[in-house]
Design brief:
Layout: H1 12-45, H2 51-82, E1 89-91, H3 93-103, H4 105-110, E2 113-118, E3 126-128, H5 130-146, E4 152-163, E5 166-175, H6 203-213, E6 217-223, E7 227-234
Parallel strand pairs: 2-4
Antiparallel strand pairs: 1-3, 4-5, 5-7, 6-7
Helix pairs in contact: 1-2, 5-6
Bound molecules: adenosine-5'-diphosphate and magnesium ion.
Length: 249
Amino acid sequence: MPTFDAGGIDRWDQDVAALAGSLVHEVKNPLSTLNISAQLLLEEAGEPTTPREQRTVRRLQVMREEIARIEQIVSSFLQYVRLQSVEGRPLDLNALLSRLLSDNAERHERRKLRVHFQAEEELPPVAADEVLLRQAFLNLLQNAEQAMPEGGELIVRTLQREREAGPELQVEVIDTGVGIPAEQLEKVFRPYFSSKREGTGLGLPTVLRIVKLHGGNVRVESEAGQGSRFIVTLPPFPAGSDSSGSGAK
Ligand SMILES: Nc1ncnc2c1ncn2[C@@H]1O[C@H](COP(=O)(O)OP(=O)(O)O)[C@@H](O)[C@H]1O
Ligand SMILES: [Mg+2]
């Protein structure tokens, strides 16, 4: 008789990711309907004159803001659970980081951040998924920026280090912001830990997940009131390998 031993399959991670993905899509459709309805009601309300109309408009605006917030929460959740594997291609970290900084330069200037990029010359390539790695560094830059509401120094450094296990690439994102209290250091990489009113608490877990999928690691050093340093290490692209994706898993 045909039999099937279900004990032999272990795809919990993929199943949860797939379930989460369909949940997110199911939630997104009614959300966008709500958003459009609120928008139309706002347009119909026009310029409020009576206090009652002003209250109505204000409430509709709150609804739209909260809808946007739910959309942000479900999107970052989906992005996090979807991270299952990466296909590594050789990538120039200095080029990636310098593009990322110049894409954000205008906002950095507006927010009074003095940005320094200290790029090690002759940095070997990493085996990376560029889109994911860009996202990881963007999350670190956003945190640094949010830690310096009054402005400050933002330093991004790349370097190559020799380790027993072989060479290693390192990227540091350093800020002179609020810092992290010692008792919170071990919590910041956990999903949904956030000290911000509008935080998702998924920025650093996403960073860690992406970097680990690249075979690397993330460390943090911080002093409350002084600033923080996030250190990302990544293995170099395997010597003698071609660019056909040597799958860093
Ligand atoms: N550069 C930083 N300076 C100070 N605190 C930080 C920094 N980066 C992260 N944190 C702390 O770690 C928490 C988690 O960060 P993250 O996962 O990106 O979530 P979020 O930014 O949405 O709060 C932040 O709320 C903050 O308390
Ligand atoms: Mg964040």
